[in-house]
Amino acid sequence: MYTFDTGCWVDGVDTNDSIAEWNSTGIVDAIPKTVEGELHTCFIYDSNRTIASCSKWVYDTTYRSSSRGMEWDLICDQRWMGALAQSSYMFGVFTGAVILGGMADKYGRKTIFCWSGVLQLAFGVAVAFMPEYWSFIVIQFLYGIFGSAGAYITGFVLTMEIVGASKRTICGVAFQAAFACGIMLVAGWGALIDNRQILQVVYGLHGLLLVPHIWIMDESPRWLWAQGRSKESVDIVEKALKCNRSEEVLDKAQLVSIGRAKASKGSDEPSAGTTDLFKTPNLRLKTLNVCFSWFANSIAYYGLTLSTGKLEGNPYLITAILGFVEIPSYGTVVYFLDIWGRRSLMCSLMLVGGAACVIATLLPTGSTISTAIVIAGKLFIAGSFAIIYNYSAELFPTVVRNSALGLGSMCARLSGALTPFISLLDSFDPKIPAITFGVIAIVSGFLCMFLPETMNQPMPQTLADGERFGKGDTLFTSCLGKKRNRTYSEDNKVPEAMVPLDDTSRKV
After folding, report:
1. 130 and 33, same structural domain?
2. What average pLDDT does this structure show over 220-230?
3. Which residues of 199-229 are buried (b: 16+ CB within 10 A; e: fewer)?
4. What is the pLDDT of residues 360-373, one digit of tens each?
5. What string of H, E and C letters represents the secondary structure of 435-490?
6. Which domain holds residue 353?
7. What is the C-alpha to C-alpha distance for residues 446 and 152, in angstroms, rounded to an integer?
8. Same structural domain for residues 49 and 130?
9. What's the mean pLDDT in 31-37?
């Protein structure tokens, strides 16, 4: 949707073969100036020297000769169409997050992941060939449903469910680091491929990397165990032990028997879903707080990303740099997350990142220090965004984990969809969008102090576990030295593993 610098077409000065310089006499005389003294993008003097709306535009093609924004003139009174086009993908993710999140809890992580991967590939390529605006919007919407919502969120949940507590941090953050690598890859392809249609096809074909997972990926053993499919769950654990060349041998018969007994014991209970996150007080408060954290992280992250379009210089280089600076942020998160804990680190990063959004508005646009502040803010918010994925997976029980992450992701994509429209408020004052993004992040950073700490805690399995977990545990009570509630009752302890194993189930 990017349109780069734009100006009104001036008859007699601009021709199909030659575009006049922006500061040439013919251009300066034909176009009125804004209150800031710059040439207006949307208005021109007519033959009577009265101000009229532009009917045709010229674009700066230094970095790109074609884009949807250029083809459809998504500027001036059609600027809202550009914002809607950007938001349509996020609205798709918003829709898919809850629908596919609940389906993944019901039908399995692998099933939803694989179907989403195939459909992401199809829609990612198809969107390049949409001939007009509204068909483009529809395909973008579907692309969002099965891309970020279906494949990304479900893939993350599956990743977190196949590792124990000691590996959750590095695996979860490494999963997010791939996102930063993707940003750099997007910038690289954009710099190399000028044709916007070919470029989108190349982006869409990256979905081919997901297709082999149909054959090489196993279902989440933790989800299978929670569904009472203990034999399949234990088979996958045994397969993992062999892959890791472990000498440990499982008593499969006993484990399957334990699993079936627990399954029959809970067979009369209704299946859990998104609504269960709001039925009990502790889970409800955690859910609302986490949802707002997702919303705030996303709005600050994408707000800072949109600010890069206002930075001076090669947009592809700037985008690549902003992707690259996220890597040290993730490395720092991995190092400190198991030292300071999830809560303290996320609060700190959100508060500083939000402050960066606000401070950037007080500095001259395009200045070196302003650029540095935006990049630093992006670094801090990227770190907190990585933590919220891990944190959410650890806060909520297995039976609703994918639903919880789907709900959180829905809130994040809602803010992502709103971000382009909030950016339109710069028509009233250029500072309004960034201040809005920053204040929301700061408020959320404060509220995060009331979430329980999950570091070195076993992941809850049932709704009862989720309700007990972290009652009364806030940053303030921790500073006072008060003990947090255990996740599990004494008669229902579950050691941290891919599936609940006890010592009697192992043969050495």
Report:
1. no
2. 79
3. bbbbbbeebeebeebeeebbbbbbbbbbbbb
4. 878 776 677 877 88
5. HHHHHHHHHHHHHHHHCCCCCCCCCCCCHHHHHHCCCCCCHHHHHCCCCCCCCCCH
6. 71-217+274-450
7. 28
8. no
9. 66
